[in-house]
Amino acid sequence: MAATIQSLLEEISGVEDPIEELQSLKTALLSIPVSALRDFVSGQRFDVIFTLLNTNKREQVELCVDILERILIALNPLHLVQNCREKLQEGLSHPNDTVKILALTQIGRVVENPEAITEILSNHDILHAVILCIGEERIAVAKQAIQSLSKISHSKPGLDKLFHSDLLEVMKEVMAKSDIIRYRIYELVVEISSFSPISLGYCANSGLISQLLSELTGDDVLIRATSIEMVTTLAHSQHGRRYLAQQGIMDKISNMIRGAETDPFSSLYLPGLVKFFGNLAIMDSPQQVCESYPVFLNKVFDMALDPDPVMIGVALDTLGLLGSTVEGKQVLQKTGENFKAVFMRISQHASSGATELRVRSLDAISQLLTLQPEHQTEDLLSLTESWFHLLSNQPMDMIRNISTQPFPELHCGALRIFSAIASQPWGQKMMISTPGFMEFILDRSTGQSKEAKDAKFELVGSLVGSSTASEILGSQNYIRLKTYLKEGPYYVSAVASVSTEGAD
């Protein structure tokens, strides 16, 4: 096969229109495992393929990219950068975006290698060209550039190169091109900042983070919405949250929620503000966040009762997130009648309306009702049981009716609610006292999609895994459930059919 590749390379060099030969070379390279290709390509020169990139013939360029992708991935990153540095740099300014993406992807491989990265850090022109790629029109090129630069910042020499040289000015020049490109630079800065407290320090000292934070309260509501998303991402790390608290951002966002009531355009950015605190509550402490910023939970309740489906959706997701933790459940319960009204409204959304909102309602209910065995104290079991009874006068029938509707996502959402209560003794008692419910669980003819079978299997698993199920459900039902579990989610029982010759 090596001889075939060598002869194809020679053929390609000698023809004017090499499409057929390039296709043959691509096929030959793909037929060899990368590990076997490595030894062969390391000693070869593929200059002819790089040269053939210099054309406006799209098919030729794309074939060359496919070939080079296969060859370069087989090369050791250090060997790659030492032997193809100039070719990579040329690729970064190639008019065809697929060539740029190829070059950026390979640079991304190089900078992950501790030996090879120094070759890139010492090449100012390559780094300059990578930053310019963030300003390219095609998002795929920009994303690859952001990824490569983010990897570079994982080391102190990389941070020094990006933020303590004129490359910082290059970033600022690129971000001045448009709002979209400015936010791509912010995306890079947030990604770098999230890596470590040290990298956050570099980004903060550059002035780029304070510039991002100032846009939270800018005049353009769409830019405001985008900046909130960026700040929420920054808050995913502990050192990021600490920095934002020091800058007074939590108070600022709390005030923005309060001020949204008088802003006719607040629906464009309000969901982002709520999501920010929702994420903050889960990462830190629901109680602490809800007590420190009461406007957050009040607004979530308002949104749940709002007629706007967008607002309802955000409220459902946030309440599900909060209610997935024990502390979040306790915070919600403390609000008394306020949460009861909201929970009953969620039940209404689950029962009727647009399918998407019904599914999100069912997911929120299952998260709110889920209680892991280690958290099943008398008080918490009483709490989840009281919430379940808020769904309707006949909550078991209500959820089962939803599960029989001809929409797979509703069927699975309803089963997830049954799974949530299946590990709790009160839930098991309701199941066994509901006529026909055990037959419903064990009936494999309902819900034929893979997702439905998986959801049913999860429900059976929740019951079998509970220490109280055998006693509450009875040994006969428990054995049938264990058999179902043993047979697996996709089991089909064999049905014998007998045909009689001559029968009508």
Strand percent estimate: under 5%
- The protein's oligomeric status is single chain
Average pLDDT confidence is: 92
Helix content: over 70%
Radius of gyration: 30 Å
The number of strands is 0
Discrete helix count: 33
N/C terminus separation: 65 Å
Characterize the overall form: globular
Reported for the largest beta sheet, the result is: none
What are its keywords?
504 residues, mainly alpha, 33 helices, 73% helix, disordered C terminus
Short overview:
The chain is mainly alpha-helical and 504 residues long. Helices cover 73% and strands 0% of the residues. It starts with a helix and ends in a 17-residue tail after the last helix.
